[in-house]
Amino acid sequence: MAGHRTIYDFGMNNGDDVDYYLKKGFRVVGVEANPHLCTDCLLKFDDAVTRGDLVVLNFALTEGASNEATPFFIHKTNHVLSRIVEPPKDTADDYSVIMVPQRKASDIVRDYGGPHYIKIDVEHFDHRVLADLFGASIFPTFISAEAQSIQVFPLLAAHYKFFNLVEGRSVSIDYKDANIRTADGEQKFSFNHHSAGPFGEDIVSPWLTRDAFSRLLPKKGLGWKDIHATNIRMPQTLSPKEESNHPVG
Fold first, then answer.
1. Which residues, other chains included, contact 37 with Cβ-Cβ below 8 Å and sequence gap of 6+?
2. What domains appear along the chain, each with residue ranges and CATH number?
3. Judging by DSSP bridges, how do beta strands 142-146 and 225-230 pair with one another?
4. Cα distance between residue 225 and residue 185, in whole Å
5. What is the pLDDT of residues 67-120, one digit of tens each?
6. From the CA atom positions of the chain, what is the Rg in Å?
7. Residue 57 in contact with residue 88, Cβ under 8 Å?
8. CA 231 → CA 209, 210, 228, 244, distances in Å?
9. How far separated are the first and last CA of the chain, in Å rounded?
């Protein structure tokens, strides 16, 4: 797949977004700390792995480079809540701990090539992955991170001009039978409940400038939602006049 643009799925989980990225014609590098989910994805996307369209890496993303394994906390009943950050004491019994290999996101990108889009969903660690990538001067055309931390938007806003928001709780409703752009034209695609959803031109809500988005985000609040960023003025980006008339919130 030499010459194909690459998407990094940091926090691949069970591969809910991988099928979407593959349908759009991208090579996908999926990184997941839970080894059981990595095995599931290797089986589920066996053909893509064989073709070289998908690379599955079993690593926990950390801030430092080390050859030593690191603790990873797997939620016993809901794998999407698994995390590299130690859980609060009042929920500690909900998790089991395993040791997994670790890598920096920036080192993985250096190994596998420049990104077109990076999706980050690593449960309360997204802002640290952003800091690592930006510190290594890695600025993909499109990037998204879950808004669990107040630090996510300022990190993105320091390097990007246009922003959008995809609500996690309603993504499977908002983007059921959605039109997605592929090399073969538009296709219908339905996103699963725990997927991150679309990126780029497949997001139907208007893109906002940094200032307009900074007014929107406090009204929407942090939590289960992804902030998307780019420096490309998308077709659905509001003009300054439209933004002034747009009911933010």
1. 12, 13, 14, 15, 79
2. 6-245 (3.40.50)
3. antiparallel
4. 28
5. 899 999 999 999 889 998 899 999 999 999 999 999 999 999 999 999 999 999
6. 18
7. no
8. 10, 11, 11, 21
9. 42
Q: Is the pTM of this model over 0.90?
A: yes
Place of tokens 């290999």: 101
Task: Name the residue among 37, 36, 43, 17 with its Cα closest to residue 28.
Answer: 17
Alpha helix segments (H runs only) across 99-238:
105-112, 126-135, 152-157, 171-174, 210-220
Tokens at residue 166, please?
């995809």
The dihedrals phi and psi of 167, each to the nearest 5 degrees, come to -80, 120
In angstroms, the CA 15 to CA 89 distance is 29
Vertex 225: Cα angle to 90 and 58 (nearest 5): 70
Q: How many residues does the chain have?
A: 249
Cα(22)–Cα(44) distance, integer angstroms: 13
Give the pair of three-digit tokens for residue 84.
């590299």
- 159 close to 139: Cβ distance less than 8 angstroms: yes
CA atoms within 13 A on the CB side of 162: 22
Locate 148 and state its tokens.
């669990």
